[in-house]
Design goal:
Layout: H1 2-8, E1 12-14, E2 21-23, H2 42-50, H3 52-67, H4 69-79, H5 82-112, H6 122-129, H7 133-140
Antiparallel strand pairs: 1-2
Helix pairs in contact: 3-4, 6-7
The chain binds zinc ion.
């Protein structure tokens, strides 16, 4: 009976960062904490991983994992799977698309000059944002 009550009662937790009371479904699970959920809510963590510090830490952790026994085993398994073929196919396709867009952009640039029609290129800039950050820096000049 007690167990049933616990299941049916919505459980809340206060986020360590934004200090808001949120439902447990707003938190990712974390084996290392006492209650099994992250200390920060999903929104706060997403923001953190997007920040420069978060990205740096994430990069380091990914590298460390890739060098560990578990990581090596996991990548070996991935290399032997069909998932890899699918990934490569998608990767090549999006890569090609990005190159095509970039070529198009440079062609227009040659024709009209650096600063003209920048506004009309905004959608293309937005499109490239997800694919190539370096290009965006050029467009914003
Ligand atoms: Zn939060």
């Amino acid at each position: 009976m007690v167990e049933l009550d616990q299941i049916s009662t919505p459980q809340y937790k206060r986020c360590a960062r934004c200090k808001q009371l949120k439902l447990l479904m707003e938190y990712w699970s974390d084996k290392n904490t006492q209650d099994g959920f992250c200390r920060q809510c999903k929104g706060c963590l997403t923001e953190y991983w997007k920040s420069a510090k978060g990205r740096e830490i994430n990069k380091r952790a990914t590298k460390k994992y890739a060098q560990s026994a578990k990581g090596i085993l996991c990548s070996a398994r991935f290399r032997a799977s069909d998932k890899r073929k699918e990934y490569l196919k998608n990767y090549t396709q999006s890569g090609r698309l990005a190159i095509k867009e970039k070529e198009r952009y440079h062609r227009i640039q040659d024709e009209y000059g650096w600063h003209s029609h920048i506004d009309s290129w905004y959608p293309a800039a937005r499109f490239l944002e997800g694919l190539q950050t370096a290009t965006i820096v050029e467009i914003k000049v």
